[in-house]
Amino acid sequence: MSSSVTRAAGSEPAHSTGLTVTISGTQASASPGKGTRAQFWVRALLAVLAGVLLYLSFAPRSLWWLAPPALALLGGCLHGRRARAGFALGLLAGLGYLLPLLVWTGEEVGPVPWLALATLEAVFIGVTGLGIALVSRLPGWPFFAAAVWVAGEALRARAPFGGFPWGKLAFGQADGFFTPLVALGGTPLLSFAVALCGFGLYEALRVVRGHPLRSAAVLAALAVTAPVCAGLAARPLVSDAAEDGSVTAALIQGNVPRLGLDFNSQRRQVLDNHALRTERLAEDVKAGRVPKPDFVVWPENSSDLDPYAQPDAYAVIDKAVKAIGVPVAIGAVVAPETGPLRNTMILWDPVKGPTTTYDKRKIQPFGERIPMRSVVRLFSSDVDRVRRDFGPGKDPGVFDMAGSGVGMVTCFEAAFDDAVRSTVRAGAQVIAVPSNNATFGRSQMTYQQLAMDRIRAVEHSRTVLVPVTSGVSAVIRPDGSVVAQTKMFTPDALVATIPLRSGSTPATALGPLPEYALLLLAACGLGWAALRRTRARRVL
């Protein structure tokens, strides 16, 4: 059987066996066979390779420039594919990307949680691949495809169980020339720029090679150059000037008695480590070896003993704070008589004692709380290590520390746009990200989180202080540069003079509007693609 059908430009290839389809004057064979299967497996391998390259663009490597070629390769795999193939190829790319990126989640609990999380998140990238395949036949498709990628990231950041934004394209760009765009439109705009450059790169190579004078070639070239030029043009938004003067801040890294999930089995030792390191800092100040800080920040979980309920913990903290003689933010686990636990930062005054508190709002599922506990227990008994779930706080926390507004964004919260933005809007002149990475050993997790914190510094033009129980602790300037950091699993104290800033970047002022605009662009692209498919079927 042999026939030909003329269709509207950009419509899907026919599915019938042996059908030759003419699309915009170009014949394409749609007959299945060994060649077609071989081509799919080649694309499958290339999709996995694209995911691996994307993983390699993330910290601790400074290979941010690998992200656009990785997405160009993925775009080549997805271009012109059916929806089902787009999902399969996107899923494979997601596995190649997220399996190595998230391997630290199984550091102490074995491979099952790691494989489950990576696979679940890869499914979202599979859905994203499906959407990209659908819009890939539209004129100027790289713009729609990049918006679809942002839509996929937005979905991952919200579902399930409150979302898991880890692995956004934006978080791999801390050293890149696209980075200033995050101060303009937040992480969604930065991710969009990277994706657009990647998909545009593939389209430019594809179109320019065959039709260098067509308008499509101009659009392809624009897709590559626009994000690069926009990133360069946005550089004036990045500044670390002291708008409200400067202060001296200190971060305490007390270290933990052992690595892994059992790090807090010696809770008093963890607390003592941080108290003693603070007292040693006080001695160094008295001896003139370091300047006296205006305030001090301890890490998350630096006191897993509730100082409100346990007098000995209260006494240890109070003694250390009095020794340094300045306000100290203490990370503590607060255990009310009823209800969930609280992951709390406590502002501890050397005269008044504990005053203001901030309860962590974004509680980590399967870490600080266990959804569907009875089901999850079937796969891992480690869920029973979390005997009592943590509950979320409601309001952003900004501590008045020696006249400076220090906003608390506890560990996992730094991955969420709204958590950081609401803290800055609440008056934070400095952002503190107290963290506890001891359960993840010497994995890449702490470096991935540090890169994320650098992006947040540029996004909101704030100094970001990162005290971590076991490292890497760091001081990050508002331009994203790391001016001091510790080694892992080493007791230490960082003292640095930092700028105070109260101005708003466009990203802070606009809030979620850039993301909403990109979601609308993605919806328009998908709607247009659906309309074209409907019209093509009517022609047949």
Automatic annotation (TrEMBL):
**Which enzyme type, at the first EC level?**
transferase
What would be one Gene Ontology cellular-component term for the protein? Answer: plasma membrane
User: Which residue intervals define the domain CN hydrolase in the entry?
Assistant: 247-500
Q: Which SUPFAM superfamilies match?
A: Carbon-nitrogen hydrolase
Q: So where does this one cross the membrane? A: 40-57, 63-80, 87-106, 112-134, 141-157, 177-201, 213-234, 513-531
Q: Does the keyword Membrane apply?
A: yes
* The name this protein goes by in its record: Apolipoprotein N-acyltransferase
Say which species the protein is native to.
Streptomyces subrutilus
Name the gene behind this protein: lnt
